[in-house]
Amino acid sequence: MHVHKYEKIWLIFGITTLIVFLSVVGVSAFYAGNQPPSCLTVIDPEKVDSTAPFNEPGLKKVEGKDWDYELVFVAQAFAYTPGDVEVPLGAKVKVIATSKDVIHGFEVAGTNINMMVEPGYISEHITTFDKTGEYLILCNEYCGAGHHMMMSKIKVVE
Ligand SMILES: [Cu+2]
To answer: Transmembrane ranges (predicted)?
Structure first.
């Protein structure tokens, strides 16, 4: 069978690209340990108010962990608790959130924090706030009539 020269070049290019991309994904997943976030942490959505750490939402300093603070949020139609919170500049913070009713979003505008908050599951994200200012938290999953009013604020202060 005769394969045209350009066809051969194109086939080699295609197969090489495939091998390169699969290697990048393989090294990233198995050597660098990049895995998709799991949602294996569960909670009873009817007992959120009495389950730690959601019985005390807000910022808490922690010792002996890879992060300095835990920032706990409870989402419910149509608000987040706490309504606004102050975080010290440069703090490594683990954001922990859950929902009491329906699926909500948890997007911190201007950062790469963007979680889905589902009833029955705990969503977590570790981040460092290294710029002062006010960060708006928005719900980006339509949750009902008051969805557009659902917001909170993180103030990063020195
Ligand atoms: Cu919403």
So the answer is: 9-32
Residue 38 pLDDT: 62
pLDDT(83) > 80: yes
* Torsion angle, alpha carbons of 103, 65, 57, 115, to 10: -20
Q: How many domains does the chain have?
A: 2
* Distance from Cα 146 to the centre of ligand 1, integer Å: 7
Ligand 1 centroid – CA 116 distance (Å): 10
21 alpha carbon to ligand 1 midpoint, in Å? 37
Per the structure, the complete domain to which residue 17 belongs is given by 1-34
pLDDT tens column, 15-34: 999 999 999 999 999 998 88
**In angstroms, what is the span from residue 142 Cα to ligand 1's centroid?**
4
- Statement to judge: residues 83 and 153 lie in one domain: yes
Question: What CA–CA distance (Å, rounded) separates 76 from 46?
Answer: 12
Distance in Å from the first CA to the final CA of the chain? 72
Span 78-86, average pLDDT: 92
In the reported structure, the alpha carbon of residue 143 is separated from the centroid of ligand 1 by a whole-number distance in angstroms of: 4
